[in-house]
Fold this sequence. Notes:
Layout: H1 10-28, E1 37-41, E2 49-52, E3 55-59, H2 60-63, H3 66-70, H4 72-81, E4 86-92, E5 95-101, H5 108-129, E6 136-141, E7 149-152, E8 155-158, H6 160-165, H7 172-182, H8 191-205, H9 232-246, H10 250-260, H11 266-272, H12 276-285
Helix pairs in contact: 1-4, 5-7, 7-8, 8-9, 10-11
Bound molecules: zinc ion.
Amino acid sequence: MNKTKVKLDTAQINASFMATYPGFAAADSYRTKREVTMRVIDTAKKFTLTAKPGEIVVNSRWIKKQENSKAFQAHLQTALHKNWNSVDTIKRGDYQLVFINKNSAFNPVIQKELIETYFKVFPVLVSTFNDKTTHDVLFVTDTAYKGVAEASGNRILFSTTYMNAHPTDIDIVTHEGMHLVQGYGYGSGPVWLTEGIADFIRYKYGVDNIGSKWYLPEFTAKHNERKYENSYRITARFFEWIDQKVKPGVIIQIDKELRNHTYNQDTWVKLSGKTIDELWDMYAKNPELDLKYSGKERS
Ligand SMILES: [Zn+2]
């Protein structure tokens, strides 16, 4: 009898999986609820453990050995890592960025610029708007992701297809980084408001809006159809107008109240003396604005 052999302990395998995979799930799929199948097979001799998105295969002969069973969790992590092109951990001051790139065709120059933008902008946003925001952020690229970029938890996901085609659009980091700083949680204010603030912050704190030809669109009569609910840049321009023409700091206070879950329709009246519809009507009558965009030297 071989004493080193152990009975296949599926409870232990499950526990190891739950301890390992969720931490990597954010990097492994843009929705973290991807289903994973784990198969234990005993047909192959040399094979031990493989992992690809959604599937893990383990050799039962291998895992039945005491030492392998004990090291299963570490092996699982290693196997998951193999799906990625690179993992870089960058620390500057008390901020950290882990960059997981899963596409070998992702332009490294763009990757570097995203990293630089993070260290330039994110600490400023955190210290200005919400010093409880994490200092430990994860950037992930995923070829399976069909959007442009999105933020959740401490993670920002980028589409490499989009970024390779729009290499100067590095202030995506500013917009998505602001989403991490916002951290309003569920049920605090409408989506148009969250997105309008993120683009308002991109306008104010972005490092190269000129380089990416990112501008706040001039007011047109068509904007009156959905007014401030147009969201993103149309709303951001309206917010900049409030900042310049009505009262500076209103939008920043709105951001605070959203975070405190004290925001409601009356907040606009409390802060500016006007309802948001009244503010919009004033804006629509006289939308002239002096706008200044950030830009950086490019070689
Ligand atoms: Zn957004």
